[in-house]
Amino acid sequence: MLASDQAWLTRAAARDNKAAPFSPTPELSLADDLMSDPVSFVAAALIRNGIDTEIVRRVTGDARRVFGGSQVYIKVMDRPARDAEIKRLLGLGVSPEGVARHVKTSVSTVRRRRSDWL
User: Fold this and answer.
1) Does pTM top 0.70 for this prediction?
2) Can you give the three-state secondary structure of the chain, one letter per residue?
3) CA 27 from centre of chain
4) How many CB atoms sit inside 10 A of residue 102's CB?
5) Three-state DSSP class for 94?
6) Which helix H or strand E contains 106, and what residues bound it?
7) What is the pLDDT of residues 47-85, one digit of tens each?
8) Which of 9, 20, 64, 107 could be bridged to 100 by S-S, CB 3.0 to 4.6 A?
9) Computed from CA positions of residues 55, 59, 60, 61, in that sequence, does the dihedral angle turn out positive or negative?
């Protein structure tokens, strides 16, 4: 892995206060430049977090057959997960401003989602 990638991942993990920085998993014989191959990146993370290697290889093999050789857009956010979290927090009585801060989105997005549901 490139030093700049390792530094970026370390900062991202510290910022998100989540898992330790990404480290390649030897079982997949990954290349040093994981950032150019999202499928390998995700596969290694799944294996590192306890998912069976054979299942990961089957699923990533399917993904490579379907998307291999094409350029695919990867969304920055998971909108359904974000919307579910907005809905949950609003249901708990959190203000739209508090929800927006927690979900890291704008207050207008929270209000728009709330108006869609009511």
Assistant:
1) no
2) CCHHHHHHHHHHHHHHCCCCCCCCCHHHCCCCCHHHCHHHHHHHHHHHCCCCHHHHHHHHHHHHHHHCCCCCCCCCCCHHHHHHHHHHHHHCCCCHHHHHHHHCCCHHHHHHHHHHHC
3) 22
4) 13
5) coil
6) none
7) 999 999 999 999 999 998 988 888 888 888 889 999 999
8) 107
9) positive
